[in-house]
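During the second year of the project, the team shifted from modelling isolated chains to modelling whole assemblies. The rationale, set out in the original proposal, was that interfaces cannot be judged from single-chain predictions alone. As a representative example for this report, we include one of the complexes processed in the last quarter. Its constituent sequences, exactly as entered into the pipeline, are reproduced here:
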Amino acid sequence: MYRFIIKGGKELSGKVKVSGSKNAALPLIAASLLAKGRTILHNVPDLKDIQTMLKVVHTLGPIFHFENNKIIIDTTHIKSHVAPYELVKTMRASIYVLGPLLARVGKAKVSLPGGCAIGPRPINFHIEAMKKLGARISIKEGFVHARTSKLKGAEIYFEKVSVGATANVLMASVLARGKTVIKDAALEPEIGNLITFLKKMGADIQGKDTDTIIVNGVDNLKPVEYTVIPDRIEAGTFILAGVITRSNITVENIHPTHIRSLIDVLERMNIKLKVTDDSVKIRSCSDIRPIDIKTAPYPGFPTDLQPQLGAVLAAVPGISVINETIFENRYTHVPELIRMGSDIDVEDHIAIIRGKKRLTGAPVMASDLRGGAALVLAALAAKGESVIQRVYHIDRGYEKIESKLKNLGARIERVKN
Ligand code: EPZ
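Output from the structure prediction step:
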């Protein structure tokens, strides 16, 4: 186990290049199961969650090579249809193999993922959709058991927008017999990225970037070479690192259109930005104003940037209010921010933040990925030294975070416990 030691209060400077998107790459690795042969993925971040997804796919038979952010995966042979608990419990996105396995081999046995720090994270939408597509499903002994002779197209709609369920239905329906209509589909860029990937494989899909996606099943798909989109959440996290340290840094290799909601929020906070087609530079943070925000499915303000924005607002004098509408418990970082001198009250899904001029360094502990990122941001701005325990949470979603921050001038060290 490692911890970060951060000496805060120092302005950052320079440029940082963002890695490929974890949440875009994970479904692509699963979708490679839909074709026989070698799939090549570029710009894949070297993260724990990516390694876990590759292990899950490898247990099903395929062999892979992952080096220098490039994955080569040969899915010619599927020898098993079982995704084991030992792997699935460490990463709930393992459920992404359900749709491709049903489409490719007609059966799947996937461990129930279990919850995580931010909420129970059920998969009922995934299960109901697979049943509508013709799978016979039973839940027993902690596993989803699914079988089908051949999936058939159906009309699928979700009571709540779900990124994962939209991805799973897309991957199941591309080889189904007939037409599938997905209503209330997630609009996240990671879904658009998956649709582009599947269409390159030969899938027949209309409605990319809309909430109604139409899939006409085809007989087979071919393996392709593809480059993963940049990570919009890492991009937003680094922009917020610049804001909290009042630094004029530039975040590069991004699609600013994917973080339009964050840019709008920062401009409403009176922060001046220079936005190009692949970068965002912070020009001025003087006279920052507090703000009220609500998380929402894309293109709304992303729940995955809510903890990081909360850390920024904790150091903006005035009253800010955050309403977290997606997950049940996405304030695990708040008690740790309070240890750093923040004044925050959480009632149900609402956080009332009475921003202070200055936070102070303290020993704190990460409990989940984005909450951990929020603590890093707070520590960069706080006066004095902070020690952040359980950085393995942060390593799940941020490739080489301490070297990227060091290159911006941050005083951060990774130390073995
Ligand atoms: C994806 O999770 C992301 N993970 C999450 O990022 C992100 O926070 C989330 O989408 C929302 O944008 C990956 O892409 C790997 P959902 P997912 O299904 O697909 C409820 C990170 O930090 N729901 O869109 O699991 C669910 O509980 C991670 O990188 C059901 O009730 O999220 C939540 O309240 C954290 N039943 C809401 O829907 C279901 O079957 C949205 O969840 C599925 C979801």
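The chain has two domains: 2-19+230-416, 22-227. The longest strand covers residues 2-7.
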